[in-house]
Amino acid sequence: MIEPVMKRGFASDNNSGVHPAVMNEILRVNSGHVVGYGDDPFTEMAKAMIREELGSQAEIYFVFTGTAANVLGLAGITKSWNSVITAFTAHIEGDECGAPEKFTGCKVLTVDTPDGKLRPELLKRHMHGIDFEHHSQPAVISVSQASEMGTIYTVEEIRVLSDYAHANNMLLHMDGARLANAAVALGLPFRAFTTDAGVDLLSFGGTKNSMMYGEAVCFLRPGLTQGFKFLRKQGMQLASKMRFISAQYIAYLTDGLWRECAMHSNKMARELEKRLSGIKGVTITQKVQSNGVFLIMPHDVAERLRKEYFFYPWNEQLSEYRLMTSWDTTSDDVEQFAERLNIMLSEK
Q1: How many Cβ atoms sit within 10 Å of the Cβ of residue 216?
Q2: Angle of helix 243-252 relative to helix 257-277, nearest 10 degrees?
Q3: Which of 56, 114, 279, 348 has the most CB atoms at less than 10 Å from its CB?
Q4: Burial class of residue 187 in the structure, from the number of CB atoms within 10 Å of its CB (0-12 exposed, 13-18 middle, 19+ buried)
């Protein structure tokens, strides 16, 4: 029998385990029979709890994965002749294996941004050919909160983007895979930087912050959901035993579990930044605002260290690497990693 490797690394917050409270809630609903496909009391409760966070107008559809949440959500608000504008670093560009183009038929247009955040002036290069049949028609601006670079949009920055989108007959989509980390960093409730800031469509994730699996597609502007229940079924994302996705959101949104987990992972990232920034030969490249730390270190040292700790290169040309902390990262994990890196650099 192969024993699992239990050592905590810094590759991804997807690699962490599931919080005991989430597991307990799954066990709690695992009793008796309920109607399948979401027509159960647990799913209704989870939706009601999400509406308390996002507003009573929110229409919520649970799916299995973040890819599905982003792709099907975008498919629900676009036509095949449309385009979606996003940052070059965004998941829908670099980490969805072309799924947005395949399932929506749209073009994904990107802009380069040094910190992972979009701004109206960066979008203007794609705002042409409007109503000209030879060009795809821009329909959606997609942002990630927190961004893939670990940076956070302020409420005002989101509002500026939503105003720009709406002024140009477009919609604003938010990939909220790390929404909780952003909320903690901003010190604000979810609604303040989503619904109230003009976001139209939200992918509300928890997998990276202590849940097992499952995401919520949240339509925040009324009138956008026509036909989406059919699209979810066609997209193979209608869970028969949906209560086991819903149960996780019940636990996640009860007694601030989401906040507790995100606060801890953000704290561990700042601690990691503090320890690494004092090591000669290491350069921190991005503001540490959520649970990601980006740094440059010698390639040969990084490759040695990766044999002991699992983490990913980010920009191999710059020898830049990404370190992600999780809800279960400990101070000892941070200290031991920093010590090993320091020793390897001193041996170089």
Answers
A1: 24
A2: 70
A3: 279
A4: exposed
CATH code for the domain in which residue 322 is found: 3.90.1150.10
Of 344, 342, 346, the C-alpha closest to 303 is: 344
Q: Are residues 270 and 229 in the same domain?
A: no
Strands 201-205 vs 283-284: parallel, antiparallel or unpaired: unpaired
Contact between 329 and 209 (Cβ < 8 Å): no
How far CA 145 is from CA of 8, 86, 183, 299, in Å, comes to 25, 12, 9, 29
Per the CB < 8 A criterion, the answer to whether 174 and 194 are in contact is yes
Does one domain contain both 202 and 120?
yes
Backbone angles phi, psi at 80, to 5 degrees: -65, -20
pLDDT digits (tens, 9 = 90+) for 39-59: 999 999 999 999 999 999 999
Task: Identify the CA nearest to 12 among candidates 347, 321, 240, 311.
Answer: 311
CATH number at residue 51: 3.40.640.10
Q: What is the chain's alpha carbon radius of gyration, rounded to the nearest angstrom?
A: 21
64, pLDDT greater than 80: yes
Evaluate whether residue 334 is within a structural domain. Answer: yes
Specify whether 262 is located in the same domain as 229. no
Do 155 and 237 lie in a common domain? Answer: yes
Whether 234 is covered by a domain: the verdict is: yes
Could you read off the pLDDT of 263-291 as tens digits, one per residue? 999 999 999 999 999 999 999 999 999 99
Beta strands (DSSP E) in the chain are: 59-63, 82-87, 107-111, 137-144, 171-176, 201-205, 215-219, 283-284, 292-296, 312-315, 320-324
Task: State the residue range of the domain holding 271.
Answer: 258-347
Q: What angle do CA 145, 228, 71 make, to 5 degrees?
A: 40
Q: How many domains does the chain fold into?
A: 2
Which of 252, 267, 298 is at the close of a domain? 252
Beta strands 107-111 and 82-87: pairing type?
parallel
Q: In this structure, which amino acid lies at residue 284?
A: I
